[in-house]
Design brief:
The protein is mainly α. The protein contains 13 helices and 6 strands. It has 2 domains: 74 residues, no CATH class; 222 residues, Transferase(Phosphotransferase), domain 1 (Orthogonal Bundle), CATH 1.10.510. Strands 1-3-2 form a 3-stranded antiparallel sheet. A 3-stranded antiparallel sheet has the order 4-5-6. A hairpin with a 5-residue loop joins strand 5 and strand 6. The protein is globular and about 60 Å long. The N and C termini lie far apart (45 Å). Bound molecules: adenosine-5'-diphosphate and magnesium ion.
């Protein structure tokens, strides 16, 4: 177990998120979240006492023990940004499948993580990845509103899809964030876009055209005369595309991992063998236009048609997706 000592307010939020994630079937295989919370004290009457390290020092003047909580969770390994895979027993397709299973379970349960980057994926000693840090997540997609979705303008973060960056920037409409400037940032300045082009074989012009096609789709459907994105357009975008927020991010992490591991010839051989199955999935997960983007359930189904999570929980999701396309 690992423990963290944080303010009571933060702990209450994080722990209630943990409670929600722990209701997802098989959650332990795919996620690591807070499992117990207790008040630090020299003597514990709490039933979670066995998880708690008594706090003895470190309180500033005026702070009371009661304003802190200790959260405990299973140790899940090293973050994906730091892990050193032993390539002898690393199976790229199994790794991707596992991440997609976690993503599919979240999607099927209406959870949107929104911040799946390489430090929020931890990898254990068996090369099993788990998603952590649900602090920005939307736990029930039907309860979301525009203020919950909005964030600061940050086009460099690879976990954000181009459509999310655009909708968010135009919704916030601060500092003169106009469409052309935002597209310019995404297509020409963002490092991750270059990686995407390299791995998936997409030209800059193609990616730019896909972004314009997305924007035209939004304008035609929802914003004929509007020059900025307001609440309702932001929510139209969300309602149509929410399952692709995390699937983009999972695809982006895999692409980043492939770029990183490609410095080892051994990995390149493994990647080349996996390419025929993997590339269509990556092109689907990281499709620039969200209308063309696969969600994790769809991607998992294509990568691994007999998958037990799909068979058990995903069949009606897939038939609904076929019906609406
Ligand atoms: N269960 C865990 N097992 C191993 N490392 C963890 C675990 N939870 C968190 N960490 C490590 O601590 C870091 C910060 O935790 P995180 O929950 O992402 O909080 P923050 O909100 O500060 O990003 C992670 O990037 C990861 O390296
Ligand atoms: Mg984090």
């Amino acid at each position: 177990m690992i423990s963290k000592l944080i303010s009571k307010e933060t702990a209450l939020v994080e722990h209630s998120i943990g409670e929600r994630i722990r209701r997802i079937p098989l959650w332990r295989n795919y996620f690591a979240v807070s499992e117990s919370m207790c008040v630090p004290a020299q003597k514990q009457a709490d039933r979670d006492v066995k998880h708690c390290e008594p706090l003895q020092t470190g309180l500033k003047q005026g702070q009371k023990l009661d304003s802190f909580r200790i959260l405990s969770m299973k140790y899940g390994g090293t973050s994906l940004s730091n892990v050193r895979f032993n390539l002898d027993n690393f199976d790229l397709l199994a790794f991707v499948t596992h991440l997609l299973e976690g993503g599919a379970l979240m999607t099927l349960h209406g959870v949107i993580h929104r911040d799946i980057h390489a430090k929020n994926i931890i990898v254990d000693s068996h090369n099993v990845p788990r998603i952590i840090d649900f602090n920005l997540s939307i736990l029930d997609y039907q309860s979301a509103d525009a203020d919950m979705l909005a964030h600061t303008y940050s086009p460099t973060l690879m976990q954000l899809s181009p459509d999310y960056i655009i909708m968010n920037a135009l919704y916030k409409n601060t500092r003169g964030l106009l469409y052309d400037r935002v597209v310019n940032d995404i297509v020409y300045k963002r490092q991750f876009t270059k990686k995407l082009g390299t791995i998936l074989g997409w030209t800059t012009d193609y990616m730019r055209a896909q972004i314009d096609a997305f924007y035209a789709h939004m304008r035609n459907a929802h914003m004929r005369n509007a020059h900025t994105v307001h609440d309702s357009i932001f929510m139209h975008w969300f309602n149509e595309f929410w399952p692709t927020i995390d699937s983009w991010a999972i695809g982006a992490n895999i692409i980043q991992l492939i770029m990183h591991l490609s410095q080892w010839p051994r990995f390149v051989a493994m990647y080349n063998a996996a390419k025929p199955r993997l590339l269509p999935i990556l092109r689907g997960l990281c499709a620039i236009h969200p209308l063309e983007r696969m969600d994790c359930v769809e991607a998992l189904h294509i990568l691994n048609p007999g998958n037990r999570i799909i068979a058990k929980y995903g069949v009606s999701w897939l038939s609904d997706a076929v019906a609406t396309h």
